[in-house]
Design goal:
Blueprint lengths: L52 H20 L4 H27 L4 E2 L1 H13 L5 H13 L14 H10 L13 H4 L2 H8 L1 H21 L2 H24 L20 H6 L6 H6 L15 H11 L3 E2 L6 H20 L13 E3 H9 L4 E4 L2 E4 L11 H5 L7 H4 L8 H8 L2 E6 L1 H13 L6 E2 L5 E2 L20
Parallel strand pairs: 3-6
Antiparallel strand pairs: 1-2, 4-5, 5-6, 7-8
Helix pairs in contact: 1-9, 2-3, 2-4, 2-8, 2-9, 3-8, 8-9
Family: Belongs to the fatty acid desaturase type 1 family.
Organism: Pseudogymnoascus verrucosus
Subcellular location: Membrane
């Protein structure tokens, strides 16, 4: 697969050391002073100029040819097993090699393992390590922006493979530092010899195994070669598309990355993408035992064999902080949809005499801890009966409500808060309210992400630590 806006022959710069450590790999014919085709609107006269025809052939044309050839090529079971095994190996070349080793430096590898991953990654035919990792670093740095090479904000299909078949303006791809890649001799060699690597590891090697192993040359070419490349490419493309569209966001929802086991199965464990974008230098994508991440298991196994070392993991404390913060954010969003009653500071202040007068005039008002509630619509539904709730109308029912007669439940306090209509001014009732606040001094009122006060169970203004004696409650 050629790099966007490049021809296959232009992918190997003649002087790697002289190339910029932050710029995208350029076509040798690219002139930044000239307008790029992407700066022109697509019209009936120029639409074909916007298409990267080489990638169309590589991503769409050749797989279609392979599917046609499969109609006349019997699939032998040995070839099927080898094609699947080689799919897994070349997939690891991308996930464990291109991605977690070179793009994110989440672990270190010995030279033999690096050579294996560079060869397998080449067999996946997804570009050189240098080009792939550079774009992926830009994707992380500029997620969901115009500088993101495969932003899902431009559409699911675009993020899947549209960014490959449509030419991209190199000036619009975000800058990233790839100094470490330019200093890695294996990365440099593979980049300079990318076409040879692709032909050898993508087509010749899998065909040789089938041909020399059990005489199935054509099956090796079609199934272990062409169609296997198509499947592993589509799996990788799902990380750019499906992993930003399907699933949950347990760590952060400000950007599009998501976690889902289906994406993980398709992508050899890369589906826990919300975690990955929050903790990109962690060699794991899945952090619990039941989550599917064969890439993580492979890296761990290589460590046991002495092939990998310095496996990076974020501290569990930091991971859990992110999870808790996101849970709190979701709770805040849910809390905002609920009726917690009119805030006390927005209620009218009513004198005791006016409160008593309105109650005598027939309004079912009950004062609890200095807050006046209209319980008229609730009397008939009161679980304790009408008589008990009627006995508190026009009186200070603080003691009645807080254990003098019945110590009401948390749900009762929450329900009562939705009936607030005023706050008492002066008199012992306000002192009761103040006392309630003093007795709840260990319960701090905090605000949610929207600035609204959080009322936790047991901290409602109508709840006091100990029943307060009241003459009216006697």
């Amino acid at each position: 697969m050629a790099e966007p806006s490049q021809t296959a022959a232009d992918q190997q710069p003649s002087n790697m050391a002289a190339s910029s450590s932050t710029e995208p790999v350029r076509n040798s014919k690219y002139d930044p002073k000239k307008p790029h085709i992407t700066e022109e609107p697509i019209t009936a006269a120029n639409w074909y100029k916007h298409i990267n025809w080489l990638n169309v052939v590589m991503i769409i044309g050749i797989p279609l040819y392979g599917m046609v050839m499969a109609y006349w090529t019997p699939l032998q079971w040995k070839t099927a097993v080898w094609a699947f095994a080689y799919y897994f190996m070349t997939g690891l070349g991308i996930t464990a090699g291109y991605h977690r080793l070179w793009a994110h430096s989440s672990y270190s590898a010995t030279t033999p393992l690096k050579l294996f991953l560079a060869a397998m990654g080449g067999g996946a035919v997804e570009g050189s390590i240098r080009w792939w990792a550079r774009d992926h670093r830009a994707h992380h740095r500029y997620t969901d922006t115009d500088k993101d090479p495969y932003s899902v904000r431009k559409g699911l299909l675009y993020s899947h493979f549209g960014w490959m078949v449509m030419k991209q303006n190199p000036k619009r791809i975000g800058r990233t530092d790839i100094t470490d890649l330019n200093e890695d001799p294996i990365v440099v060699w593979q980049h300079r010899n990318y076409i040879k690597t692709v032909i050898t590891m993508g087509m010749i090697f899998p065909m040789l195994v089938c041909g020399l192993g059990w005489g199935d040359w054509m099956g090796g070419f079609v199934y272990a070669g062409i169609l296997r490349i198509f499947v592993v490419q589509q799996a990788t493309f799902c990380v750019n598309s499906l992993a930003h569209w399907l699933g949950d966001q347990p760590f952060d929802d400000r950007n599009s990355p998501r976690d889902h086991f289906i994406t993980a199965i398709v992508t050899l464990g890369e589906g826990y993408h919300n975690f990955h974008h929050e903790f990109p230098s962690d060699y794991r994508n899945a952090i619990t035992w039941h989550q599917y991440d064969p890439t993580k298991w492979s890296i761990w196994m290589w460590k046991q064999l002495g092939l990998a070392y310095d496996l990076k993991q974020f501290k569990s404390n930091e991971i859990e902080k992110g999870r808790v913060q996101q849970l709190q954010k979701k709770l805040d969003q849910k809390r905002a949809t609920l009726n917690w009653g009119i805030p006390l500071e927005q209620l009218p202040i009513i004198s005791w005499d006016d409160y008593v007068k309105e109650a005598k005039d027939g309004r079912a008002l009950v004062a609890v801890a200095g807050v006046i509630h209209d319980v008229g619509d609730f009397i008939k539904d009161h679980p304790g009966g009408k008589a008990l709730i009627n006995s508190g109308i026009g009186k200070d029912a603080t003691a009645i409500f807080n254990g003098g007669v019945y110590n009401h439940s948390n749900a009762a306090h929450n329900l009562l808060s939705t009936m607030r209509v005023g706050v008492l001014r002066g008199g012992s009732e306000v002192e009761i309210w103040k006392q309630a606040q003093r007795e709840n001094k260990d319960i701090s009122f905090v605000s949610d992400s929207a600035g609204k006060k959080i009322i936790r169970a047991g901290s409602q203004v109508t709840r006091i630590a100990e029943p307060v004696a009241s003459a009216d409650a006697a």
